[in-house]
Amino acid sequence: MYIQMTDGVPPPPEQSSLDHRIEELDKQKEIDDWLPITSSRNAKWWYSTFHNVTAMVGAGVLGLPYSMAQLGWGPGIAVLILSWIITLYTLWQMVEMHEMVPGKRFDRYHELGQFAFGERLGLYIIVPQQIIVEVGVCIVYMVTGGQSLKKFHELACQDCSPIRLSFFVMIFASSHFVLSHLPNFNSISGVSLVAAVMSLSYSTIAWTATAAKGVQEDVQYGYKSGTTASTVLSFFTGLGGIAFAYAGHNVVLEIQATIPSTPSNPSKGPMWRGVVVAYIVVALCYFPVALVGYGVFGNAVLDNVLMSLETPVWAIATANLFVVMHVIGSYQIFAMPVFDMVETFLVKKLNFKPSTILRFIVRNVYVALTMFIAIMIPFFGGLLAFFGGFAFAPTTYFLPCIMWLLVYKPKRFSLSWWTNWVCIVLGVILMILSSIGGLRQIIIQSKDYSLFS
């Protein structure tokens, strides 16, 4: 207490209440200084560049030619460009809304949702979708890292005995049992920078090696499916494949929370500068891979364009190694908000003491859980495509627009009003259609499925 009893007379009730409030604020600050998202606010603008590149440019970029084959030239290019424009716009909205209330920063996606939708409803709308996306992506990256390690091993040592995918997933997971104990976003900035460079590198290898191969004989660009129903469902899957490639919004506010902010120099300036550079890198990765890959192989392209390339072996092996290095960083970017949610709940709701031991247990359990599920269900990408329809599309394409309409209330039929409603309608359509395509993918993959296969 700041005011002691004097001559046996207790301080007035107002002073006791003030002292209690000061103690509570000090305790809250101590907790915030320990939590991953709010513990460090000294990031530079270029941190947001490679954090956003690492979050957005996943290994799924190698599947863009396959998505193009399911959509065709016209719709494929249109969806590529529209997704780039729409998601850049909704990302700008997120950056602007981070500090729209003077003196208040919405450091987490669900905090912004609670402000827009209400305390309870905001949690119910945002948190389940964030968990589906972030935990799902971590599991998929476990599988992707293991598959790429396995492919690198097969190419680098062609005379070696084959090793099961499960062991490569465990090898990949071993890196996260170490890296996951880095405390916050700024502490993984080096990992994220390497991952961003790797994403640009393997994307460049993919499209340059494909272009060097030249357009294949008897290449065909028509739809491959035999029936109209199959063609339509494949179209839905391809639509989701391209749309989900742009889904990095789930960690945007958490990244911006690491940038310092003052009334004269708010964080949205450096954050937006980093986002623009990141989106230029995204375009340099996505468009050449998608267009060159489909142009060379047509509808015969495999779901991973690197697998369509047989030579040069060294380039394919190097690209797979770069994929591994990239998804190591991506896993950490998507895991950090999960760590923050779990640690916040344990410390603030269950009154656990912030400690290294608590962090050690929480993060090891999470890495072990995602590794176990990846080994148990190595086609989890099909499940992600289905559930992602309910999470990726809303959090990326139309939830920012809904929150913008609720908070800023633009004039009806104004340009802002129309822009947001168009994004909402397109996002809802995307959510429904991609979920249908994802469900079909699960059904097809599960035909030959056996547990721990």
From TrEMBL:
It comes from the Eukaryota. Its main location: membrane. The keyword Flavoprotein does not apply. One of its GO terms (molecular function) is amino acid transmembrane transporter activity. Keywords: Amino-acid transport, Cell membrane, Membrane, Transmembrane, Transmembrane helix, Transport. It is found in: Cell membrane. The keyword Transport applies. GO terms for cellular component: plasma membrane. It is a multi-pass membrane protein. This is Amino acid transporter transmembrane domain. It comes from Arabidopsis suecica.
